[in-house]
Design goal:
The protein is an all-alpha fold. The chain has a domain at about 1-40. It contains 8 helices and no strands. The chain has helices at about 1-50, 50-60, 65-105, 110-120, 125-140, 145-175, 175-225, 235. Helix 3 (about 65-105) runs antiparallel to helix 6 (about 145-175).
């Protein structure tokens, strides 16, 4: 009986270890693959990105070419405005982090604030990534400074997510700040972190597409409402 129990226990442990090792290996391999492939994907997108509208237009009838190019151009402008707004928000977070780090007397405050600025470009996860070096540097100098660094990042993140980001993105994307807040709340409930990351640009692009479709529909309705007035040769006599 003891031998059977020991054998069963060893088998369970071995299965758990093998599963954990497989999971860890899968995460590591996926991370390495992403790190290796993403730069190449970005390079090809930058080199051949201008060909994308032509490729899309070729798939559609020629009569839709003008409207398709306009929709793609509006989508491009919307995404560009979103990125510009995200850069402005990141600069604001960097300035707030710099002020907090200086008040807390944390070493390398300027460098740490610059790192927070760069990482904040990544939606939702960026501020937490940028907080790690500041907390480590503050803890090495004095544990209480690590607490001050955490407080600085949390306060900056709250101000950014609740005030600055909705206002700036609302101005750049021409969307009401309250709408952005509601979109983020709904996306967070539905899709979690991924939903929050993709919520604002997806909403902005979808809005552009729907507005253009509605505009095309109105133009076609106006054309249908205009009576077809033709002049016959008999009427000229």
């Amino acid at each position: 009986k003891w031998t059977n129990e020991a054998t069963s226990y060893v088998g369970t442990v071995f299965k758990s270890v093998s599963t954990s090792v497989g999971t860890i290996f899968g995460v590591i391999s996926s991370t390495v693959l992403i790190i290796v492939l993403v730069p190449f994907i970005l390079v090809y997108m930058l080199l051949d990105g201008y060909k994308f509208p032509d490729s899309v237009v070729k798939l559609l009838p020629r009569s839709y070419e003008t409207e398709t190019r306009k929709i793609l151009h509006d989508m491009h402008v919307t995404v560009k405005h979103y990125v510009n707004g995200q850069v402005i928000v990141s600069i604001c977070v960097g300035v707030m982090s710099l002020i907090g780090f200086f008040i807390a007397d944390i070493q390398y405050a300027l460098l740490l604030a610059l790192f927070c600025t760069v990482t904040n470009i990544i939606p939702y996860l960026g501020p937490y990534i940028g907080a790690v070096p500041a907390v480590i540097v503050g803890f090495i100098d004095d544990p209480i400074k690590a607490v001050y660094a955490i407080i600085t990042i949390v306060v900056a993140q709250q101000i950014e997510s609740n005030l600055i980001s909705p206002y700036v993105q609302g101005k750049t994307l021409k969307v009401h700040p309250l709408t952005i807040i509601i979109v983020l709340l709904v996306a967070g409930k539905i899709g979690g972190i991924i939903g929050v990351i993709l919520a604002v640009p997806t909403y902005a692009v979808s809005k552009v597409v729907i507005q253009n479709i509605a505009r095309i529909y109105r133009l076609r309705q106006q054309r249908l409402d205009v009576p077809d007035v033709t002049v016959s040769p008999e009427s000229l006599k």
